[in-house]
Amino acid sequence: MNVEEFREYCLSLKGVREKMPFTHVSDRYSRDVLCFYVGDKWFCFVNIEAFDFCCVKCPTDRIYELQARYMGIKPGWHMNKRHWISIHFNRDVPDGKILELVKNSYETVLRSLPRRERESIQQAQS
Predict the structure, then answer these.
(1) Residue 77, CB half-sphere, CA atoms under 13 Å: how many?
(2) Element housing 80 (H / E)
(3) Domain segments of the chain: what residues?
(4) Where are the beta strands (DSSP E) in 5-52?
(5) pTM
(6) What is the pLDDT of residues 73-118, one digit of tens each?
């Protein structure tokens, strides 16, 4: 999987928009971070230049199981380690599993949105 395939997948989910919110920070790595949002909350981000890992929200009860199973899954970079994981590309995590975890993150964040906003997103592209 490459960065464009990954980006296309994220944008294929209902109501998703992308943004590079850190373009003015001094850290070069952070400037190249692309965030994917549903509503006004992000569910995934990836560095589009390095394309080394993505960071997604994950249910707390699954984090340790995933980290034990895959060497390529680590605590979330610059995020709350109880709720976010970093999934490293080109390691032992299959592409299909990465996309599954991205979708799970999207669904988790979508469920956290206010009912009206969530229903609006779900109906917009039906």
Answers:
(1) 16
(2) none
(3) 3-115
(4) 16-19, 33-38, 41-47
(5) 0.93
(6) 999 988 888 899 999 999 999 999 999 999 999 999 999 999 999 9
